[in-house]
Write a structure and sequence with these properties.
globular, 22% helix, six-stranded antiparallel sheet, alpha+beta
Length: 116
């Protein structure tokens, strides 16, 4: 077993969470990619494919290599199951759209599922 070392801790900058007037919760992730996004990418179609139970995605393009992924949940966005759903979301975006370079301005290798 490795000895504890505080220098190994990584602080991930989670996107801010806000409660909507209808009681749902929402956060918007700012993602950048290593390459330009495909020109004929249907963000509406990919958003639908990324949805999970109580975890709804809306993708919007913010530049040639940048997307926002807005996640809306019915329950509090700090619920544990949404942490894992968020990590799956990153991996699925990486597989469906292109190689993520940063998440909320941090190198993707600092985030699950890539961080070891």
């Amino acid at each position: 077993m490795r000895e504890y070392n505080a220098k190994r801790l990584v602080h991930n900058c989670w996107a801010p969470l806000k409660q909507l007037p209808n009681g749902h919760w929402q956060r918007t992730w700012h993602l950048s990619f290593s390459e330009k996004l495909p020109p004929h990418l249907s963000l509406e179609k990919v958003s639908t494919e990324l949805n999970e139970s109580d975890f709804f995605i809306t993708l919007t393009q913010e530049g040639p290599k940048r997307l926002n992924a807005t996640v809306t949940t019915l329950d509090d966005g700090w619920d544990d199951r949404f942490f894992f759903a968020t990590y799956r979301l990153f991996k699925r975006i990486d597989a469906k759209i292109g190689t993520l370079e940063t998440i909320e301005g941090q190198d993707r290798d600092l985030w699950r599922p890539w961080r070891r």
